[in-house]
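The methods section describes the discrete structure representation at length, but only in general terms. The central task, working out the structure tokens from the amino acid sequence alone, is never made concrete. Nothing conveys this as quickly as seeing an actual entry. For illustration, here is how one protein appears when written out as sequence plus structure tokens:
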Amino acid sequence: MDTLPVIVLRQIVEYLPSNADRLIMSLVCKRWFDQRQSYLHFYTDRMNLNKTGIINFNKTVTLNSYKQIINQDIINAPLTILLYTDPHQYINWDTSNRCILLNGDTWKQEVLAMRWIKKITFCDCPAKPMDKEFWDGTTEFFEALIARDGHLPKIQFNQRTRALPQQHVHLDALAISIYGDSNDDGGTFNIDALPPTLTSLRFNSYFWFVPHFDLTHLGSLKSLYLLHDIQRKQFDSSNLPPSLTKLGIELPSMENAPLVKLPPGITNLSLQHNYPLQGGHYLSKLELPAHYLRVLKFGDMDGSTLLRITSSNFPVLEHLIFEYKLFNEIPMDLSSLPSSLQRLNVSTYRPIASLPSSIEWLSIQFECKFQLSDMVWPSPSRIRTLHLAAYGHELKEGDIPTSITSLKLKRYNKPVHPSALFNGIQKLACIKE
């Protein structure tokens, strides 16, 4: 350890996926700790920062020996900037490392004084909308950014008013949340007002689209999420751009819904609903087989849907995420899931009897009290990473397969029997939150 040059240590750091791993590496020996300033750096995207971009160290975790490294990483990291009009609506949850409350036009010079900007997020509120006048006033600001850097950073708008940005505004991402008198209807939406530069678009409210629902002019759009009442607004995949790869739809009901034919470029599909599935299971309204789909997410799984998630219907599916919210004491057999499946996220009120043999990454959130010892693990097991959340029993020998190298226990307050942790486990995390 004492002979490894600093350049090699820097390369090792780049292969460590978390800040915890990087900190632990610096504690391997005295030399690595003493020379930490020469090779160590941290990810800063998810750190708890204050408005000036400096980390908020609390009384429990001080990291005094690493403060200089962390703050230097923050200074050198690309900036993410939040520009907002309501001091109470966004500031508490946004993860941007610079936050500016808009007051007149002074924000423009403040932002232009910053270097290496990765992303700018605009957030308005009904009391202070970012309307046509506001966006018209940003033209010179965006031109100045391009003249200085040669390009624009990613521009996102979190919109909560009915004032739409004009087509000339360069937006990469737009999330619209407008609620009418019925608390679920955003009213009329002019689809032609959307900027053609969008790569991500979220409709978080129901809309009546005019002149009709057609996004084919958004040739750069990659991700789309919408609350879509397909009983009153026909969902036609021919009205979606061929560039789309990720689609999320929240269905108010399945009854009388038309068949949904996915565009051929869709690889990631999320299906949600906010009413009981009375008109049949999810997949009864989806044209199968889905030859291109690699990621599939369900907000609430039902038994009949589960039976149709097979290799013949989803021949290249790699990642499945679902919640099973109906309490049922009969264990569910997951061994018939597609043979291509590699990752599985399950939150369940129903016990699990068996798993598919192909999975390498597994996450289970326990909403019922079944035990891991009652579940049949694949043999041989390919599972390397296992996350268990709210498991209500003591973890004992034989409860998890010996193929596991990374184990995370979340909201786990039971003892772990020493024999349950075998030598093959290289990474262990216990989170009590």
